[in-house]
Amino acid sequence: MPDMDRNTPFAFDGLDRVFHERARLGIVTSLAGQPEGLSFSSLKSLCGLTDGNLNRHLAVLEEAGHVEIEKGYDGKRPQTRCRLTGRGRAAFAAYLEALEGVLQKANQAAGSETVMRSWKERPA
Amino acid sequence: MSDVDRAIAQIADIRAQLAVSTRFSGYAPAAVGGIGVLSVLITLLQLGLPGRFAANDRQFIIIWGLLLASGFLLIGFEAVVRTLRDNDDMARHMLLSATRIVVPSFLVSAVVPVAILEYSPEAAWIVPGIWQMVMALVAFAAFPSMPRKIVWPGLWFLLCGMAGIFLAGHIGGLTPLLVGGPFIVGHFAIAWVLSDRETFPRA
């Protein structure tokens, strides 16, 4: 695996497609700091999603085993709570690490481009 | 700061949030249970040989202070070793957030008795109560990264700390059970909580 990383440094295999989508990234990031999870309505307003969209993305996350959805009651009102599972937390931590790696590579590339540009634009 | 730098900083922030709210498995229940066993031994020694091990409040503070400090170092060492063994960046973040909770409390617990013994030794009887309340604060502060049962040892230490101060003030000094009882039960309770295999998310 390390050899593969060396040979294909820009393959970015660690970027899990389940997380690598704007709405799902918002959902998982909202849940990341909440060990007790969030209610469906809080999640909806935090992520700016419609009921249908949120349901669809939660289903993808639940199917991957990253999110657990629990239906219960808050007093007498029915409530749906969503939480990151232990597996989801570990996978999201790995995803963030991979994403950070991508950005650091981009930063390095931007840095070397700036050096090249200033070299090309230097006075003759 | 470029956009990329800002994005990297945001990722670091999200990882820190994830670490704070993920269960920290660095604390070893065996180490905490071991401190509980030592607490039993000290209490028995103080009950059996009060003239030698429980002669005055100062002696209580020194004996229990040394036990708690060595317990802190043992548990801390174990946590660092377990975290480094995992070789996981996330675990290191979690160790850092646990350190932010525990170290300031440890410093307060070490400095306050030293100051009291130095400048106001007649008030030494309040120290075990203060230690117990600080331990309660640590337990409550660690709640997001611990099994939810951690509130019980936290409550125990809080109530014992308050009751201990009232009782010691009423009796006019410390007794082996007044000091040892809360630490024995509290340490075994924390060991029980840490041995819980409850995983996140909580039920």
Automatic annotation (TrEMBL), chain A:
Pfam families: HTH_34. InterPro entries: HTH_MarR-typ, WH-like_DNA-bd_sf, WH_DNA-bd_dom, WH_DNA-bd_sf. Residues 17-115 form the HTH marR-type domain. It comes from the Bacteria. This is Transcriptional regulator. It comes from Novosphingobium indicum.
UniProtKB/TrEMBL annotation, chain B:
This is DUF1109 domain-containing protein. The chain crosses the membrane at residues 27-49, 61-81, 93-117, 123-143, 150-171, 177-194. It comes from Novosphingobium indicum. Keywords: Membrane, Transmembrane, Transmembrane helix. The keyword Membrane applies.
